[in-house]
Write a structure and sequence with these properties.
With 551 residues, this protein is mainly beta. It folds into 3 domains: 119 residues, Cupredoxins -  blue copper proteins (Immunoglobulin-like, Sandwich); 167 residues, Immunoglobulin-like (Sandwich), CATH 2.60.40.420; 174 residues, Cupredoxins -  blue copper proteins (Immunoglobulin-like, Sandwich), CATH 2.60.40. It is 8% helix and 35% strand. Strands 9, 10, 12, 14, 15, 16 and 18 form a 7-stranded mixed beta sheet that branches. A hairpin with a 2-residue loop joins strand 14 and strand 15. The longest helix has 12 residues. The radius of gyration is 23 Å and the shape is globular. This is L-ascorbate oxidase-like protein. Belongs to the multicopper oxidase family. Keywords: Glycoprotein, Signal.
């Protein structure tokens, strides 16, 4: 059967454009999610595998591909995967978080169907349920440019995905019990690179190989739990070319700070003596530094890796200056032929300003994290389903949180935290961090312009310091201790979208909210219908399905 005929049958069988876009290529995956036993840090422990792999399989897609992933949950708990950085245009139904989807029950399967519409770049996926991310089921997700779109660098010899992150030897269920009892997870036990850490005993197998004189693309993603990581390659410089879906001005770095949830792409040329070299990831802003290593081997190289590991920078001022060096490549084309810089975000009038202050406190004697005094709780009925089925008042209320606080709230309220934003509004969001630890934030469904990160407290006068020309368009932003960050974006993607801390402990204990961008006209121009295959749970289970959106 021809590929075109298969696509036609697929489109007819699905019976709705809410899931698959006919005419664009479709890639299929079947994932069996299981427990397994591995020793990433030398201690046997329970991990979560996808098709027996840790980390999970790499998703290799191209702009506008339809991606179909049939996930079989063979765990003993409900499970969801979220596709970090995939914007799910008009399609919140496949976002994989508890505010939009019912989790996949144990012993059953669910088929995700989404399109990587008008995107390129380096992304990742990971579990959104419980503390499953602390056990695995994460991996890389790349979106390649279409052949007709020029890329602002020569094609590399090969393209490698590098998943880095700190790691605990305690199981995900043990860590969850700590959090449920009101305790923090404390410090991790090590750092992994693609699920391993080289011992340096001469027996380590290489993670990657390079041919002398050739240039390679490395996509580095921090899928960790607690710490920012500094990444470097022994004896080699790295040319940054892409970050979370945007081409960058191509600066060269000896090392890069990769905060939790962030992905960078860099070019590395094999221009050194042919032998083994370490790639290194080490924790930043910690009293005791944890280091993970992996081997890069030159083909036909001679000689062992040098035991001298390159040192990481010290302090967060260095990291702040590195952030300021990141610039949007205004002349490069991303997913479409027009240059990235043709979108002049700095000339758009701000419709609304929202200020968010994170805090740590206690509720009922237990540790909780909050945004503007509200510690989010996921209701049994996903927020999006409650809204779609017209029973919102039974599940949550919009806008219970103040959006212009002057200081951290002294009292924490535990409830669903949902903002209501009018579609097409151009919004300024200020993240203010009064704590002593760095914060990293992520927004589902969107990319935003990271226009400023500065020490101190934000005031309206700080707008004069915004980068309104070539700030990076991305989906994460870090906020240094006692500092603030500002982002700008147009909320033009209808749905219910998760804004969260990228540290799983803080997310699990309430440092997240949802942004409801309502499809008030119930129009297919703004949002696709809920797919027939969508799981239902909570109060909507057994209810008649609402009438579909109109054109």
């Amino acid at each position: 059967m021809s590929g075109m005929m298969l696509m036609l049958l697929l489109c007819l069988s699905l019976g709705t454009i809410s899931v698959v876009y006919c005419g664009d290529p479709t890639i299929f995956f079947t994932w069996n999610v299981t427990y397994g036993t591995l020793s990433p840090l030398g201690v046997p422990q329970q991990v979560i595998l996808i098709n027996g792999q840790f980390p999970g399989p790499n998703i290799n897609s191209t702009t506008n591909n339809n991606v179909i992933v049939n996930v079989f949950n063979n765990l003993d708990e409900p499970f969801l995967i979220t596709w970090v950085g995939v914007q799910q245009r008009k399609n919140p139904w496949q976002d994989g978080v508890l505010g939009t989807m019912c989790p996949i029950p144990p012993g059953t399967n669910y088929t995700y169907k989404f399109q990587v519409k008008d995107q390129i770049g380096s992304f990742m996926y990971y579990p959104a349920t419980a503390m499953h991310r602390a056990a695995g089921a994460f991996g890389g997700l790349r979106i390649n440019s279409r052949n007709l779109i020029p890329v602002p660098y020569a094609a590399p010899e090969d393209d490698y995905t590098v998943i880095i992150g700190d790691w605990y030897t305690k199981s995900h269920s043990q860590l969850r019990k700590f959090l449920d009892s009101g305790r923090s997870m404390a410090r991790p036990d090590g750092v992994l690179i693609n699920g391993k850490s080289a011992k340096g005993d001469g027996k380590d197998e290489p993670l990657f190989t390079m041919k002398a004189g050739k240039t390679y693309k490395y996509r580095i993603c921090n899928v960790g739990l607690k710490n920012s990581l500094n990444f470097r390659i022994q004896g080699h410089q790295m040319k940054l070319v892409e970050m979370e879906g945007s081409h960058t001005v191509q600066n060269t770095y000896d090392s890069l700070d990769v905060h939790i949830g962030q992905c960078f792409s860099m070019l590395v040329t094999a221009d050194k003596e042919p032998k083994d070299y370490y790639m290194v990831a080490s924790t930043r802003f910690t009293k005791s530094v944890l280091t993970g290593k992996g081997i890069i081997r030159y083909e036909n190289g001679k000689g062992p890796v040098s035991p001298e590991v390159p040192k990481a920078p010290v302090g967060w001022a260095w990291s702040l200056n590195q952030f300021r060096s990141f610039r949007w490549n205004l002349t490069a084309s991303a997913a479409r032929p027009n240059p990235q810089g043709s979108y002049h975000y700095g000339k758009i009038n701000i419709t609304r300003t929202i200020k968010l202050i994170n805090s740590a406190s206690k509720a009922d004697g237990k540790l909780r994290y909050a945004i503007n005094g509200i510690s989010h709780v996921d209701p049994e009925t996903p927020l999006k389903l409650a809204d779609y089925y017209g029973i919102r008042e039974k599940v949550f209320k919009f806008d219970t949180m103040k959006v212009d606080p002057q200081s951290p709230a002294e009292k924490i309220t535990m409830e669903p935290n949902v903002l209501n934003i009018t579609i097409k509004d151009f919004v300024e969001i200020i993240f203010e961090n009064p704590e002593k630890s760095l914060q990293t934030w992520h927004l589902n469904g969107y990319a935003f312009f990271a226009v400023a990160v500065e020490p101190g407290k934000w005031t309206p006068e700080k707008r004069k310091n915004y980068n309104l020309l070539d700030a990076m368009s991305r989906h994460t932003i870090q906020v240094f201790p006692k500092s603030w960050a500002a982002i700008l974006l147009t909320f033009d993607n209808a749905g219910m979208w998760n804004l969260r801390s990228e540290q799983p402990e803080r997310r699990y204990l309430g440092q997240q909210l949802y942004v409801g961008v309502e499809n008030i006209k119930r129009s297919l121009r703004n949002e696709y219908n809920m797919p027939d295959s969508a799981l239902v749970c909570g109060l909507v289970k057994g209810m008649p399905k609402p009438p579909p959106y109109s054109t």
